[in-house]
Amino acid sequence: MKWRQGRTSGRVEDRRGVSGGTAAGGGIGVIVIALVGYFVFGISPEQTMQIASQFGGAGSAEQQSGTTGTPEDEAGMFVDVVGTNANDVWNEFLSNYTPPNTVIYTQGTNTGCGYGQAAMGPFYCPADQTVYLDLSFWEEMETRLGASGADFARAYVIAHEFGHHVQTLTGASQRVRQAQQNARSEAESNQYLVMLELQADCYAGVWAANAARVSNGNVLLEAGDLQEGLRTANAIGDDTLQRNAGRQVTPEAFTHGTSAQRQEWLMRGYNTGDPAQCDTFNAL
Ligand SMILES: [Zn+2]
């Protein structure tokens, strides 16, 4: 991936090195950890909201702040470039688009959705409209999950989380939360989550399809990049994660979709470059 000439906007809050804060209410960190085995690659926004509401509501955690700007190191700069580019893409598609906040951190940090732990992987919190990224997850993706370590694989993860922000702006997230509340079983409730997650994958593809155009070629996918993204989508499919964890594959417990579905929706977004083609809610 070519990205070094890409525009930055200095909107990344760097909390690396800021001491981790504490889990408000004492239990959030523990609860979150318990979910991790299942929800690697970003707990879905709905799950983070559920956790937050169980523990005294969103935004109850004590505020922490780092330095906002463009990080000087390569990994931090990459987050700024990809996020800025994603904002440029979504600005074109959504008349009411406003960029999310982006926080990079290590180990743990307080969020509007409760205490965030590195082990959760990247996630988006709707309550404070913030994308939280622990950059050590990149290594985890490679070593533990067998996903790609290529820069486009990382960009896919970032763009997926920006996709959740888009869903908050379009109201899709809120509609899913409502549908989950009316769901008659956990399996049905999980199905709504899968639709939401696959749409975020499709939105990541839409970003990738438009990245070069909105940056005048300064952010560009190169040969092999898409394959790295697909390899990652494959590694983080629910069936593959369950199998690799030595569990039986149970579709009722899926929350993000199968490997095949994640690849398919990423590709659909990429091939069409059009968010209107990402209607997972009617397609599934
Ligand atoms: Zn997600």
Helix and strand topology:
Layout: E1 12-14, H1 28-36, H2 45-54, E2 67-69, H3 74-93, E3 101-105, E4 108-111, E5 114-117, E6 123-125, E7 130-134, H4 137-143, H5 151-170, H6 172-182, H7 186-214, H8 225-235, H9 238-244, H10 259-272, H11 280-283
Parallel strand pairs: 1-3, 3-7
Antiparallel strand pairs: 1-2, 4-5, 6-7
This protein binds zinc ion.
The site of zinc ion has 6 residues, from helix 5 and helix 7.
- Structural class, by secondary structure, is alpha/beta
Small molecules bound in the structure, each named once? zinc ion
> What is the N-to-C succession of helices and strands?
EHHEHEEEEEHHHHHHHH
The count of domains is: 1
Largest sheet: 5 strands, mixed
| Average pLDDT score | 85
Unreliable spans: 23-42, 52-61
Number of helices: 11
Overall spatial form: globular
Query: Separation of termini?
Result: 32 Å
Radius of gyration from CA coordinates: 17 Å
Helix percent band: 40-55%
What does this structure look like?
α5 (151-170) crosses α7 (186-214), α6 (172-182) runs antiparallel to α7 (186-214) and α7 (186-214) packs parallel to α10 (259-272). The longest helix is centred in the last third of the chain and has 29 residues, at 186-214. The protein has helices at residues 28-36, 45-54, 74-93, 137-143, 151-170, 172-182, 186-214, 225-235, 238-244, 259-272, 280-283; strands at residues 12-14, 67-69, 101-105, 108-111, 114-117, 123-125, 130-134. The chain has one domain. It is α/β, with parallel strands linked by helices and 284 residues long. Residues 23-42 and 52-61 have low confidence and may be disordered. Bound molecules: zinc ion. Zinc ion (ZN) is lined by residues 42, 44, 160, 164, 197, 200.
